[in-house]
Amino acid sequence: MKKFNAVLFILILFLSLGAAFSNSLAQEKELVATVNGVEISKADFYQLLETKYGAYALSELIQRELVRQKAADLQIELGEDEFIELYSGLIAQLGGPQGLQMFLMQNNITEEEFVEHLRFNQLVAELAKSEVDATEEAVTEWFEENRSAYAQKEGVDVSHILLETEDEAENVLQALVGGADFAELALERSMDPSAASNQGRLGRINRGVTVKEFEEKAFSLPIGEYGSVESAYGWHVILVHERFEAKEAQLDEIYELVEDDFKMANALNVESYIKKLEAEAAIEILFGK
Fold this sequence. Notes:
Elements: H1 6-21, H2 24-29, E1 31-35, E2 38-41, H3 42-74, H4 80-93, H5 96-107, H6 111-130, H7 136-145, H8 147-150, E3 155-163, H9 166-177, H10 182-189, H11 195-198, E4 201-206, H12 212-220, E5 226-231, E6 234-244, H13 255-266, H14 270-280
Antiparallel strand pairs: 1-2, 3-4, 3-6, 5-6
Helix pairs in contact: 1-3, 3-6, 6-13, 7-13
């Protein structure tokens, strides 16, 4: 879907409203700028916006209406808890709130625009998934083809505080032994940007996904105990919350997860699904006539 600056989009909406309620003479008299004494009227300004960006705005409005209608027909809504979990995970992947702000600056959008776009795409993805025919036979076949991906690998649920020196790590360990709160110390002391959003809680990690030094220490610590280790990133103070033994996957225990993965893998992508909705709809374009 083609996107353009939200300010331009809002101005175009004002144009359509102004055409119904304001007369052209008033717009001709209202100015948006002067150049060496030469006046540029609001009417000229609106005319240029409509000419250059009107088709894009109309296309987006049509697509959003198609998605709204389809969601109503299928009675599908994007749950707020589900979206919050999705958004929180995305922020963590971006490196926390600071990483999010950097991402927004790089893409020249506001957080509100980003959230709106993300909600829309997620809703379209849910609509596309709902149209996938997930028979028990097809889901079972998918599971067998991807069984190894669902096997539970050996893992640990950990938190960490990343520090620059061994002395800093020792000070933090002493504070923790003295009763200090791990999450609060992570917020105050950790060099890991994600600590701003997760308070140092990395969650479950499996063998083979972290640097060797961190892995060896994390998998050797008893549950509930603290430890420290140096890696290329600095000094880690680690707390293990839970352990997970390696386990073969059983379809009956994770059927809903596998079914959802099957639908996701076989659903149309966002752009293709919207094109499908457009092809199925009765759309009459009156703009420019």
